[in-house]
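Honest question from a wet-lab person: if I give you the sequences of every part of a complex, can you actually get the arrangement of the whole thing, not just the pieces? Trying it with mine:
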Amino acid sequence: MTEQAEFLRRRRRRNIAIMAVLLGLVVLFYFIAMARMSQRA
Amino acid sequence: MSDWISATKGGSAPLPFVPAPDTAADLSEVGDWIALLKPRVMTLVVFTGAIGLLLAPARLHPVLALTAILCIAVGAGAAGAINMWYDRDIDLVMRRTAGRPIPAGRIAPEAALGFGATLAVASVIVMGLAINWVAGAILALSIGFYVFVYTMWLKRRTPQNIVIGGAAGAFPPVLGWAAATGHVGLEPLVLFAIVFFWTPPHFWSLSLWAHGDYQRAGVPMLPVVAGARETRRQILLYTVLLAPLGLAPWALGFAGPGYAVVAAALGAGFLWHAVAVWRDRQDESGRSLTGDAPAKRAFRFSLIYLAVLFAALAADRLLLG
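Yes, you can. This is the full assembly:
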């Protein structure tokens, strides 16, 4: 594998990981909001 | 910079790949960023934090309980990342840590610091906003204690680094309790004390056979400064204090007799190992003639001790209410 291909592979994997974390946070914050609203109700 | 410009401006011939200067640290894999969070330490932190949450008299919504544990884990990981940033010079000379992402050159130090600081702030804010600000404040305190008191102040200055710095690792059960109840009572402080007194015999058992690394790095661990004989004596001393402390949850009435039996057996087992370490065959300088076999067994048992003791507390609460 060339140096460029290796660099791009690492960057792609990091970007996918960041996207997964951000999506996870969106889902988590949604459920936190639901849980807090259900506690207040 | 000129290499990058000439590579990107390009002519008709294919140009060699030259990453931009600001991507020079991009040798990292996703796993390197996870390694910065010290996942093995995180496991213990999550476990003891979850026990604190479980023992608390108040019940949290499962999503909020999961969020609290996530914040505790991320906060501990953030402190670990900042610790790796600060200790990158000594990590480089210690065999055990030379392969970590920063000394191995896969992650730039400033990137690791930014990563750790961001996660630290985020974990405290989420804990405060989603759970309560008592837990948020204790999380901030525990991260600050680990980074500023242990890593930056004590670790390179005193052989008592593990004793006082061990308090940072004792916060998670208090955090779990505070997340559920919004305050701190006697029970989580007892759990804090158990982890606090468990830490010195646990780490000194390890440092008895790993002290060469610490010596090379100039870290004043007890075996380096006071010698192996004194370290063995201190291991025994702290274990003598820890064994009865393990019974405190039963004595104070927040655990049943089943827990007391387990705690007594574990305490006796740890004492037996500490005595074996103390009586290890050694030369005149105190160096072990058995390859520190008793210390290695004591280290392994210390891990079992804490895991089973806290699991017994959880089982006691789940089974007996």
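Two things worth pointing out. Chain A touches chain B at residues 2-4, 7, 10-11, 13-14, 17, 28, 31-32, 34-36, 38-39 (CB under 8 Å). Chain A has a mean pLDDT of 92.
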